[in-house]
């Protein structure tokens, strides 16, 4: 009789606790709408038939498996972070220079950019020669980006094409920011 120090090459068996965790992750995924009913049922069958822990991991890899208290903490952090961003934006908006909207009877659009012939000339390196235009259309003010290099934004969102603007909106041309005000 010989003794052998060889280790078994058979993979570790899945425990009931591991299987229950995987099933809980699947249930949560289905409850939150991240898994369809058919996907839930198929994965549940695969969890029950799994023989190795890596098989379970593959079935739940795309699902969040955080504890409920961790989700609440992270949700709270997201809410506070969002609030501080809104507070910072509001604080900065009040401190921005005002850009007076032209009178409603203005027939031509207000061209904005570095070009001296523009109605609003902004001498800043991040402003294009012909950066944007502000036009009255159907009783509303419309701000249109004219293909500027550094972009035009309204209330922190980049303008793709055109955007309706109102009194109090924050507008940026490149890195120059203003708060719109009715004239």
Automatic annotation (TrEMBL):
PROSITE patterns attached to this UniProt entry: FHA_DOMAIN (PS50006)
Domain FHA: 110-159
Pfam families assigned to the protein according to its UniProt record, in alphabetical order: DUF1707, FHA
Keyword tags: Phosphoprotein
Protein name per the record: Peptide-binding protein
Organism: Streptomyces alfalfae
């Amino acid at each position: 009789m010989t003794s052998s120090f060889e280790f078994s090459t058979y993979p570790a068996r899945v425990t009931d606790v591991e299987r229950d965790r995987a099933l809980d992750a699947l249930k949560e995924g289905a409850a939150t709408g991240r898994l369809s009913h058919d996907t839930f049922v198929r994965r549940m069958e695969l969890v029950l038939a799994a023989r190795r822990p890596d098989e379970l991991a593959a079935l739940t890899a795309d699902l969040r498996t955080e504890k409920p208290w961790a989700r609440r903490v992270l949700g709270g952090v997201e809410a506070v972070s969002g609030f501080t961003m809104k507070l910072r934006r509001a604080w900065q908006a009040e401190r921005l220079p005002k850009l007076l909207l032209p009178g409603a009877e203005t027939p031509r659009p207000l061209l904005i950019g570095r070009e001296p012939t523009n109605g609003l000339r902004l001498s800043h390196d991040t402003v294009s020669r012909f950066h944007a235009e502000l036009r009255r259309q159907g009783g509303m003010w419309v701000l249109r980006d004219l293909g500027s290099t550094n972009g035009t934004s309204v209330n922190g969102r980049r303008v793709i094409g055109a955007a309706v603007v109102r009194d109090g909106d924050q507008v940026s041309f490149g890195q120059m920011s203003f708060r719109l005000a009715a004239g």
